[in-house]
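Section 5: illustrative case.
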């Protein structure tokens, strides 16, 4: 009886957490809206995202890219306007199979009309509606955890189903959050480009 109650409580908790996904909010932050098309027993989801807007920069170090984008949302833009922090911070790595030569960091922008960046290395971009395979994991995500989860996702999805040119890592939490962190690796479904 106690075991049944524990299982029911755990299942209810998981259902509540999963119900929040895709709503356009995560822990009080604006996030892109999506719907889950498939939840695989192999540990991934297939999601469909609505068209989204982003501010981005290309670079070699995550810290340098982050601060360029952070300055943009703090007012280093044509209007001098501040924009609330959003999630995820999405990083595109290409090529996928070797040491990435191009790394692009993105901050999600909830509005479609955004001020022009003042920094010439920062730019506005948008992704049309797209489908993506996602593997979610917790903890602090270093390069090793990212690669491990990416490889698990690639094996589960099958090479014939995703774009092999690049992948994304998406982080949802502040570096000051120590527990229940949300990290994801994304593979673009074939016939989807960003």
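Designed sequence:
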């Amino acid at each position: 009886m106690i075991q049944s109650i524990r299982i029911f409580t755990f299942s209810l908790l998981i259902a509540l957490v999963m119900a929040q996904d895709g709503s356009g909010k995560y822990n009080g932050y604006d996030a892109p809206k999506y719907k889950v098309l498939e939840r695989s027993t192999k540990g991934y989801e297939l999601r469909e995202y609505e068209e989204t807007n982003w501010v981005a920069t290309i670079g070699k170090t995550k810290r340098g890219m982050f601060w360029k984008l952070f300055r943009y949302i703090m007012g280093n833009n044509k209007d001098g306007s501040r924009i609330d922090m959003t999630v995820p911070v999405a990083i595109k790595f290409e090529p996928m199979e070797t040491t990435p030569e191009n790394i692009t960091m993105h901050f999600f922008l909830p509005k479609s009309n955004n001020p022009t960046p003042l920094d010439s290395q920062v730019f506005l971009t948008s992704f049309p509606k797209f489908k993506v395979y996602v593997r979610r994991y917790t903890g602090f995500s270093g390069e090793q955890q990212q690669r491990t989860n990416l490889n698990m996702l690639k094996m589960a999805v099958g090479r014939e189903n995703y774009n092999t040119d690049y992948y994304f890592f998406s982080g949802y939490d502040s570096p000051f959050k120590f527990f229940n962190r949300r990290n994801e690796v994304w593979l673009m479904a074939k016939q989807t480009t960003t």
